[in-house]
Amino acid sequence: MSATRLLVLAFVRAHRRAHGYLVGQELMAWDADKWANTKTGSIYHALRQLGKEGLLEEFEVPATEAAPARTDYAITDAGDAEFYRLMEKALTVPEMRPDMLCAGLVLMSALPRATVLKHLRVRLDKLAAQRADVEHANSTARFVGDRALPPHVEALLSFWTSNTACNYDWLAELIGKIEGGAYAFADEDENAFGSPSAPMVLP
Fold it and tell me: What is the pLDDT of residues 42-85, one digit of tens each?
């Protein structure tokens, strides 16, 4: 649930106050169900859970002639701290599933440029260590003799090698772009995507 948790916090934070339908509609407009495995039901569950944890404050809005009763949410100081903690995790921790990284990339403009670069460099160091581990596994793998691995395991080792190298190269290129001034971040533009009061709806 981490990616959904991060996205829900981020969208409520950006709006300052939002209800479940608004958050759900905007996340679906961003196709978050495809790249973050975020479903409508999990959005409402996350809102309720974050409220129970004191990370979101709940406001009951009574029904009017124009709209039914609803619950609005606003982020608390503890919720803001959790947002930054999850963003650090999203940008620094390599995982097999890309959910958290995708969420972190979509929301990275809500952080200062230097913070994003710091997190991504940590991730790059971890990927370098992973690449070294994979290269060691490749060099020590035995396919003949005692305790030999099945021949087809070579395909798995090849996948790990290619995947790790590709992720490392892609991230190194992204860091270079950000160092070179690409994109706008929260410390440079108060309307950077994901910042409070910045537009979150797709045009």
Answer: 899 999 999 999 999 999 888 787 778 888 999 999 999 999 99
- Three-state SS for 36-97 is CCCCHHHHHHHHHHHHHCCCEEEEEECCCCCCCCEEEEEECHHHHHHHHHHHHHHHHCCCCC
Per-residue pLDDT of 154-189, as tens digits, reads 888 888 888 899 999 999 999 999 999 999 999 999
Locus of tokens 């999990």: 42
Rounded distance between C-alpha atoms, residue 12 and residue 73, angstroms: 7
CB 10, CB 83: distance < 8 Å: yes
Is there a contact between 12 and 23 (Cβ–Cβ < 8 Å)? yes
Integer Cα distance of 99 and 3 in angstroms: 6
Pairwise CA distance, residues 3 & 91, whole Å: 12
The alpha carbon dihedral of 44, 76, 112, 170 has a sign of negative
